[in-house]
Amino acid sequence: MYHHLSAFDAFAASLLHRSVFETSQTTGSESLADRWILNKLARAIESSSKGLETYEFPIYTTAVYNFWLYELCDVYLVSEVFGEPWHC
Prior knowledge:
Layout lengths: L6 H9 L16 H22 L3 H26 L6
């Protein structure tokens, strides 16, 4: 699917401490929060890659910015730090 890693893709993979491109399967031990952030990451990678491929840099930067600020920082990290429970 992806023939090269963009800077965002490489950053995202390093953020997870393992490449999300090495395997398409999860271990099964991921929490609901982990599965949620992985889903948001996959969507951000898809959007940012499309933006780069078509030279539409606002799409690329918006995808990166929105993932970083609104999903990773505002929801995932805050919930992990403060121990907010994730409910189905």
